[in-house]
């Protein structure tokens, strides 16, 4: 029986950024058709879809409530709407920390909360945001600029994350570990993005320098722990997470820590990892379709 998976983008990127091209071919190879749709297109009907996969909904941060309402209306959404709700506010980092997961030290600042400025360089970013928009790095001598940026984010209605910058990112970048259906697939590196950041032509995300990676054992173990903690939080099996990307950095203390966990609409690095990653994704989608 023919089955179709809808890949979901946004109005400015209705067919994503091109990374899924290989995945669509791999899905076709195992008998799964695909098409793209825009999440808030009033002419689309997602109610009877076999599977709806968030891929490039990178405009959601400006209309998160409407986006989450739409997610809740789509029964076949992956990842599921309750997972997306939790994961689209970076306050989830504090939940992970509470579960014993080492994260980059993070302060969540709501309206009126006074920041406890770390020594050295800091990162100030909105708790709800995609594509590194609104994230900025400031040196010790730029405390006034950092304070002004924090204030501007608050004035725009955002809660704010304040983190000490981890300087190893300048040398190693971030390591993104990708899982499909709860199983590890591949990893890729992302170069430092908060110095001289350039946006793609859609304006939705900062362009990145990407490369295939072979993560060290400590990174793999930490990423596995993150998936276990997340599955336990939602009372589900890991296999119910169709896709996950765990972004790990080395802290200034030399140990790995979570910078972000991406369960809503992450780039998955198919172009970096090659056809094997697309085939693994296709198998995970087939399992979802039953």
Automatic annotation (TrEMBL):
Keyword Ion transport: no
Domain ATP-grasp: 93-290
Record-linked InterPro entries: ATP-grasp, DcsG_Biosynth_Enzyme
Record carries keyword Cell division: no
Gene Ontology molecular functions: ATP binding; metal ion binding
UniProt entry keywords in alphabetical sequence: ATP-binding, Nucleotide-binding
Protein name as catalogued: ATP-grasp domain-containing protein
